[in-house]
């Protein structure tokens, strides 16, 4: 990272901190509250604690990613899930003026703030294989609840302004994050192999289709960092990437960064077992699971190559190198079927 990058990062963090301080002023009950950054990745997340020890989560959204009405759609979905499902989610809080979302402008850049309730729990441990496999059964059941709710409210959610996660916006010509071809560790040979896999993915998704029983409003980022384990309960946080996508994409996001682990197949089996308690998957849907997992893997390569944070620095080029075996196996399995 060069000096100019360092200066830009300092400016960005300064703006986030200013937005956080200004956001608290929208809540008269939090004028004396403490505010501490606990995570900076795509957004800046702060732990807020009032004088009585009550905790909240303040999110300052990354600039130029969502419009205000898109964040309001996310909030509407959270409230709907809270009212109509047993899923435990972090709820948005209204400020003194009755609004959930507030805009803060610095250096001609708008930062949106939203305050959420605080949920107790810790993220699942990817190194605790036995517990993780058991937890994935619960996660599968929760995910099926999400999807069943989406299907039941399909017409209502069609009016929501949220992003679409499909082939074009993940691996295709209009990627929301970046091009996987520009990821770390890419070589001409590797790009050729991955493009072959991407072509197969595209063909399979076109055949799979977007029926409302397969495609709708989803969380779209159920990775381990966005889950909280509290006893036998799993709570779900961070709906920032929620949008319209294939339901099985939620499964793929839940194994983000661990797709190459030897226990992957056990995780999938456990997830499907839990999911089937609410919604049965067809043979065609089960057959599509590897396609969604590899699509997500390639998307994460693009994310790592286009971001600079603690997670991307830790994963780096090695994540691409670890993908080779997965891509080769996928191409060898499906290339003859799609020629």
Automatic annotation (TrEMBL):
Gene3D superfamilies: 3.90.1200.10, Phosphorylase Kinase, domain 1. Residues 42-279 form the Aminoglycoside phosphotransferase domain. Coiled coil: none annotated. One of its GO terms (molecular function) is kinase activity. InterPro entries: Aminoglycoside_PTrfase (IPR002575), Kinase-like_dom_sf (IPR011009), Pseudomonas-type_ThrB (IPR050249). Transmembrane segments: none annotated. Keywords: Kinase, Transferase. Pfam families: APH. Belongs to the pseudomonas-type ThrB family. This is Serine kinase.
